[in-house]
């Protein structure tokens, strides 16, 4: 049987784990912002999404760990878990996940680097062809206008 002090220590330990999870989730959002540029509107939407997820996690942790009883030491445990994570693990996790993402993205970046000159040459060639077609269409339209004016002038002469 768990004593009251043991129950409260287990609740604080669970709250600390919840805080570590929240801080890790926040780091994932920060890492995502390193690789994907987002506008200010989407940053605000992401922040709202993070806080909604954080609220759900805290509610579920409170419900699972202490049967929904939220006391001051529970929130103190969450806060201390966040502090522990940022003090001890954040730099290491950020460095490792960033490195892993860079390793995964490296082949795609190399492929893009190799295909860029060919794609640029193709778009230049297509631009020249479209420019010639536009010029020919403009000349044809001019000829049609001239022919139409000639016909109009021929019809209005007495």
Strand content: under 5%
Order of helices and strands: HHH
Uncertain spans, ≥5 residues at pLDDT below 50?
none
| Principal-axes shape call | elongated
Q: Report the structural category.
A: mainly alpha
Distance linking N and C termini: 118 Å
Q: Give the number of domains.
A: 1
* Radius of gyration based on Cα positions: 33 Å
**DSSP helix count?**
3
Q: How much helical structure, as a percent, in the residues?
A: over 70%
Overall average residue pLDDT: 87
The total strand number stands at 0
- Major β-sheet annotation: none
Outline the structure in words.
The chain is an all-alpha fold. The chain has one domain (4-156). 91% of the residues lie in helices and 0% in strands. It has three helices and no strands. The protein is elongated and about 110 Å long. The termini are far apart. The model has no long low-confidence stretch (mean pLDDT 87).
